[in-house]
From TrEMBL:
Keyword Oxidoreductase recorded: yes
Domain of life where this protein originates: Bacteria
Name this protein carries in UniProt: NAD(P)-dependent dehydrogenase (Short-subunit alcohol dehydrogenase family)
Taxonomic source organism: Paeniglutamicibacter sulfureus
Signal peptide span: none
One Pfam short name: adh_short_C2
Family: Belongs to the short-chain dehydrogenases/reductases (SDR) family.
Mitochondrion found in the keyword field: no
InterPro entries assigned: NAD(P)-bd_dom_sf, SDR_fam
Keyword line: Oxidoreductase
């Protein structure tokens, strides 16, 4: 398939995990990519992996902190300067933060998680949606979480931020659908990414793989999801194949969130 031929897509958090997987999938489908991450080395590795499968891919990489609005404005401006349009936006960058019960959850840590996972998503929407409204077209996928549609213990900041992402998604979709812009969110569950691995290591650094296996045992599919499975969903939602899907929050969790 070449669903993204001639189209440009911004991906934040492109230096690893879900962002990298989505970038690879969209590159396979001939998309032009603006890769954004705070980790410059991660961006280089993502671009290298893309070049291995799509040597002629049109790619720019922009190092940015999504919690800094001026840096968000810069990645939007760089995309427009290089590609002329913003046809898709995977608003994905985020962190998990430390794990503690609410009473022990640090106030600074709470603020840090919200600044990246919620304010960063808001800034991206604010500046990309203006472009898409003026174009009269575009598609956005925000990364929420199963933690944005139900509670997750010991992660006050993460759960609050991801619930906020769900709210921003639905609110913006109501506002911008009339301009030909679709805005949806994905709600990943246990996907084996570096962030999830780090979370398991917080619980038990020596036996994190066993912790992970116990974690997915209640899942109807009894396994972790793969980043590329999420990348395929993101590509679908950003493509014309998802033309009448708007304001949706789509779990990709093997069915676990429906079991409880």
């Amino acid at each position: 398939m070449q669903r993204f031929e001639g189209k440009s897509v911004i991906i934040t958090g492109a230096g690893s995990g879900l962002g990298r997987a989505a970038a690879i999938q969209i590159a396979k489908e001939k998309g032009k990519l603006a890769l954004v991450d705070l980790n410059a080395a991660g961006l280089q590795e993502t671009e290298r992996e893309i070049r291995d499968i799509a040597p002629d891919a049109e790619i720019i990489s922009v190092t940015a902190n999504v919690a800094n609005e001026s840096e968000v404005q810069n990645y939007v401006a760089e995309t427009l300067k290089n590609f002329g349009t913003i046809d898709g936006f995977f608003n994905n960058a985020g962190i998990e933060g430390k794990q503690n019960p609410t009473e022990d959850f640090g106030s600074d840590e709470f603020g840090k998680v919200l600044s990246i996972n919620l304010a960063g998503v808001f800034y991206g929407l604010k500046h990309v949606l203006k472009v898409m409204r003026e174009q009269g077209s575009g598609a956005v996928v925000n990364t929420a979480s199963v933690g944005g549609i139900r509670g997750v213990g010991n992660q006050s900041g993460y759960a609050a931020a991801k619930h906020g992402v769900v709210g921003l998604t639905r609110n913006s979709a109501i506002e911008y659908g009339q301009y030909g812009v679709q805005i949806n969110a994905i709600a990943p569950g246990a996907i084996m990414t570096p962030m999830v691995e780090g979370s398991l290591k917080q619980i038990d650094p020596e036996n994190w793989e066993a912790v992970g296996q116990a974690f997915v045992e209640p899942n109807p599919m009894k396994r972790f999801g793969k980043p590329e499975e999420v990348g395929q969903l993101v590509a679908f939602l950003l493509s014309g194949d998802a033309g009448f899907i708007n304001a949706a929050v789509i779990p990709i969790d093997g069915g676990q969130s429906y079991k409880y």
